[in-house]
Amino acid sequence: MRMVDLIHKKRQGHSFTTDELRYIIQGYTCGDIPDYQMAAWLMAVYFQGMTDEEIADLTTVMVESGDTIDLSGIRGIKVDKHSTGGVGDKISLIVAPLVATVGVPVAKMSGRGLGHTGGTIDKLEAIEGFQAELSNEQFIEHVNTYKMAIAGQTGNLAPADKKLYALRDVTATVDSMPLIASSIMSKKIASGADCIVLDVKMGAGAFMKSLADARRLANTMVKIGQRLNRKTIAIISDMNQPLGCEVGNANEVKEAIEVLRGNGPEDLQVISLTIAAHMTVLGGIYKTFADALHNLTTILQSGSAFHTFRQFIQAQGGNPDLADNPERLPQAANHIDITAWKTGYIQQIDAEAVGTAAMMAGAGRQKKGDAIDPAAGITLLKKSGDPVAKGERMAVIHTNKKTAEEALQRLQDAYVITEQPPQIQPYIHEIVC
To answer: Does residue 187 have an active-site annotation?
Structure first.
């Protein structure tokens, strides 16, 4: 078998066998296949695409490139959730304790943020003492005891994906549907869950800008899951503006706590409850989505899920008093107001621009290894559809930097004000199963 022949085969639009894909992925991961040949192969895949069977086989061989997590020691049906990334996305902090409260074990491996999207681990580490690094034994013990654990991803989980992504990033092949889908699903399959709920973000602040593209990605990933014997469902949710009103690490934790106490923004409640309801149906707790949604709404409003969250924080070394008193989480020294330049309605808020502004204020990383400031972030006082008067505050930047002119300008530009109110987008666009 020769790599040059396989590049030519895909260039001609033909499909690969499982053995051919294994040869390519194993060869590249161990260094036998050079970057220049792999780059040519990626470009051939970009233009010719892959069949559903090829994508499932590619996912499988990427899983085989590294470790897989054995969750057989956890009692019950293990259900995981994954978001394709968004701004202000603190859904995992709400969904995991909500689902755990009704007895579905949540064994979640999460990552750190890069660029304009935040990472769940970064948010949790804003809580003093929180430990994201758990041994496999500790991870399983925590889930069996508390019904949930959230830990950092292991270094050798689907290493082929990490190496491939770095090459895709510099060869303009990131936005290939087969490569995106296999990248996401290889990590989810390797993480060991029995069932997977995917939150596919769509809109200005997401990787998938259109509903058509989000639908294609959702369908592709659901088919991968089904072919690999994982019950999988995808929810296409809106990301045309940030989720909730807080962007940043400590302030997103505060907002998640507010929702877990039965309050908080409507969009966060609706999307969290939708995802949690599907997770509990897959986990066998409820028979129908309607029953799950009704019961979980009651549980969320009662504050029971907050107690699960507090217990989870304490179990992983975090200071539980900060859950009781979130105002004691890290606070920035400087607070810069963004005011309306005219009277009207908020037509839209560019979610990606808001995420970038938060990163510039210190809340995110421009490259791996950058330090982040847990206190930095943005509070949105006005969102799409809200009326605003000239001079009224629309948002606040929280930063410990002495100057934040670039972030200020980026956030100002994110807002569009018009004379007429906009048509409001639904929080959930579609369910794909």
So the answer is: yes
Domain housing 336 = 331-418
Asked if 130 and 317 count as a contact pair (C-beta separation under 8 A), the reply is: yes
What is the secondary structure of 236-287 as a DSSP string? EEE-SS-SSSEEESHHHHHHHHHHHTT-S-HHHHHHHHHHHHHHHHHTTS-S
Residue in 22, 90, 112, 168 annotated catalytic: 168
Active-site entry in 57, 89, 122, 161: 161
Q: Is 112 assigned a catalytic role?
A: no
| Domain harbouring 222, CATH code | 3.40.1030.10
Catalytic residue chosen out of the listed positions 183, 186, 237, 272: 183
**Active site residue: 187, 201, 254, 278, which one?**
187
147 classed as catalytic: no
Q: How far is CA 37 from CA 3, 4, 25, 29, 368, in A?
A: 7, 7, 12, 13, 26
CATH code of the domain in which 44 resides: 1.20.970.10
Is 161 labeled as catalytic in the residue annotation? yes
Among this protein's residues, is 82 annotated catalytic? yes
Does 423 map to a domain?
no
**57 in a structural domain:** no
Candidate list 10, 78, 82, 231, residue with the active-site label = 82
Instruction: In whole angstroms, give the CA distance from residue 419 to residue 346.
Output: 9
pLDDT (tens place) for every residue of the chain, 433 residues total:
899 999 999 999 999 999 999 999 999 999 999 999 999 999 999 999 999 999 999 999 999 998 888 899 999 999 999 998 889 999 999 999 999 999 999 999 887 665 556 689 999 999 999 999 998 899 999 999 999 999 987 668 788 988 998 899 889 998 899 999 999 999 899 988 999 999 999 998 888 889 999 999 999 999 999 999 999 999 999 999 999 999 999 999 999 999 999 999 999 999 999 999 999 999 999 999 999 999 999 999 999 999 999 999 999 999 999 999 999 999 999 999 999 999 999 999 999 999 999 999 998 877 666 788 999 999 999 999 999 999 999 999 999 998 889 999 999 999 999 999 999 889 999 999 9
